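Hey Z.,

So I finally got round to the zinc ion thing we talked about over coffee. Here's the setup:
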Amino acid sequence: MSTDFQYIFVKYCTGVFLTKKKGDKNQSINKIMLMFVPEENKCKTISLEECYNKEWVTFLDEQLLLKNFQCLLCKEVANNAMELICNDHEDQKDALVVGGQCLMRYLNEHNGECPVGNHGLCNYVRGKAVRNFVDELVVICPRQFMSQETEKANVEMEEGTKITRGGPKVKHGCTFKGKIKEMKNHLERSCQLKPSECKFKEFGCKDLLFEFNAEQHLQSQMKRHMDLLLAYINVLQQNEMVNFGNLVFFFCFFFL
Ligand SMILES: [Zn+2]
Ligand SMILES: [Zn+2]
Ligand SMILES: [Zn+2]
Ligand SMILES: [Zn+2]
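And the result:
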C-alpha cells in the first residue's frame, strides 16, 4: 500500500474497519476508502474511487438489475463509467461498460489493447447515461454498511487498539441514506461514524471515538482526563518547565 495514506484503525463491535485518508486535508475529500476484514482475513473494500461494491449498492434494493451498469472487468458497479466504442464491437447489442479506473489500469498494463477481444487501439468514450444512472442510486452510509458486515463476519477483536469505554453501540450507527454522488460529502461532513480522537490525546488518552460519542466521552472520562493532565504537569514540574503561562493554558484546555 502506498505510504502517503494515513490509516486510522477503528474497532467496531466484533470487528475491524479502517478509514484510509489522503494526508493532506484539502485533498482528502477525493480519497476516501474504507475496508473491513471479514472471514479468512480477506479485506473487502468500499471505495468511492474504484468501482462500487455491488453488495453495498444493492443493499436497499435487491431487485436492482446490475447488468447494464456492471464493469466488465471487475464485475462490480461501474464508477466513472466508460463505454467501449471500437469498430470491432459494432455488432454488439449491449453497451460495453467499464469503470474508469479499471479501464485505465487495464490499458496501462496491456499496451492500450482493448479488454474485449484484445485487439489493438481501444476506443472509448465517457458512458454518460450509465454515470447519470449510477450517480442517482440510493445507498446507505458505507461505514454503516461495513459495521453491519463486520458484525456479521464476527471477526475476533485484535489486540493493540483500545475501543472507547462501553464501546460504540450499533443503535448509534449512521442512519444516512442518499445518492451515491452525495456520499463523499456525507463521509467528510455529517457521518455519525466518522472516527475522531479525544482532545486529551497528547496527554495520554488514546481512546478512539466517533462523532456521536466524543462529547459523552469527555463527560464520562473527566476524572481520568484530569489525572492525565496532572501527571503531565507533574512531569513538566520535575523538569522545571512549569510557569504561570502554561498553567493558565492547561486550565483553559480542561474547562473550555
Ligand atoms: Zn471495475
Ligand atoms: Zn474494443
Ligand atoms: Zn455515515
Ligand atoms: Zn479521552
